[in-house]
């Protein structure tokens, strides 16, 4: 097997890396059409078509809500909306990480035949996951319509400073819009970074598959942070405090809460915005660095 030709220094420039991103964004008709075709192909000859995405999410959220409510004695009216929004956001992030790590490998044929910017294939994956997210948001709208009365009422649970942790639904729900845009923005650098690295090192995708399961159970999606907060109120140095501190180290927790909190009437902490902002800057810096140095090698690695 012959080694790939050396890449000249001119191709490894920030200007060309940014030009690749700009060209990819301008080709939105291409990656948007390809992403929609991916969904149509997946549900080809199906009676409900892409609506199966919504049905699958609804069944999963309802089953987890009923089971967890019975196990932990929590109210279904507060637990189900939290689980639903958590699952919707997790599915998007999980898709960007898992499918993003194979985005260039899966597009091998097109990369070798179509002279398109590398970012087009990353945007194709992100847009496909965004369409899944849009379908799943229908489930949240239904849950919100059913439990709106309960979610609008303030909860009595307060933190140590006396702040109301659950003020109820209000105009604060609008904060979910910029938060969701921020999550989508992070999905793009995740696909770019993991996609290029995984194309070079093919052992990365299986490692991600193993790690993602552990990350799911370490993120408050199927269980509520209220349980940990209650333990934290009863102990200054016990398990509750330790669990809360450990959860703060999980960046996925902050990405989930920055969107979920306003959607279910919970208090949104500035810490979530700070962590997400730092991760966004660092993540895009790494993705641009990888795109600058290895963009031209992707076609030889696939």
Automatic annotation (TrEMBL):
Location in or out of the cell: Cell membrane
Keywords tagged on the record: Cell membrane, Membrane, Transmembrane, Transmembrane helix, Transport
InterPro entries membership: ABC2_TM
Major localization listed first in the record, in broad terms: membrane
Domain ABC-2 type transporter transmembrane: 31-229
Transmembrane regions: 48-66, 72-92, 130-149, 169-195, 207-225, 270-291
Membrane topology: Multi-pass membrane protein
Pfam families, per database record: ABC2_membrane (PF01061)
Top-level taxon: Bacteria
Keyword tRNA-binding: no
Protein family per UniProt: Belongs to the ABC-2 integral membrane protein family.
Name of the featured protein: ABC transporter permease
């Amino acid at each position: 097997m012959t080694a790939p030709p050396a890449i000249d220094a001119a191709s490894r420039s920030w200007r060309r890396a940014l030009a690749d991103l700009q060209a990819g964004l301008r080709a939105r008709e291409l990656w948007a059409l390809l992403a929609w075709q991916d969904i149509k192909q997946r549900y080809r000859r199906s009676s409900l078509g892409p609506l199966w995405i919504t049905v699958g999410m609804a069944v999963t959220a309802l089953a987890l809500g009923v089971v967890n409510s019975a196990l932990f004695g929590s109210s279904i009216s507060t637990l189900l909306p939290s689980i639903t929004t958590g699952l919707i956001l997790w599915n998007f992030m999980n898709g960007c990480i898992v499918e993003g790590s194979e985005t260039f490998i899966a597009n091998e044929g097109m990369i070798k035949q179509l002279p398109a910017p590398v970012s087009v294939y990353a945007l194709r994956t992100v847009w496909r996951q965004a369409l899944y997210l849009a379908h799943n948001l229908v489930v949240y709208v239904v849950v919100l319509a059913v439990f709106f009365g309960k979610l609008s009422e303030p909860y009595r649970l307060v933190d140590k400073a006396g702040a109301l942790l659950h003020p109820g639904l209000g105009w604060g729900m609008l904060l979910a819009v910029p938060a969701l845009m921020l999550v989508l923005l992070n999905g793009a650098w995740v696909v770019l970074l993991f996609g290029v690295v995984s194309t070079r090192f093919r052992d990365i995708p299986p490692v991600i598959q193993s790690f993602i399961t552990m990350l799911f159970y370490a993120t408050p999606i199927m269980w509520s942070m209220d349980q940990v907060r209650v333990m934290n109120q009863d102990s200054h140095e016990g398990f509750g405090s330790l669990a809360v501190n450990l959860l703060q180290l999980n960046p996925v927790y902050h990405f989930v809460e920055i969107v979920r909190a306003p959607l279910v009437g919970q208090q949104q902490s500035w810490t979530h915005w700070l962590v997400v902002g730092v991760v966004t800057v660092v993540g895009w810096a790494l993705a641009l660095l990888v795109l600058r140095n290895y963009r031209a090698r992707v076609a030889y690695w696939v």
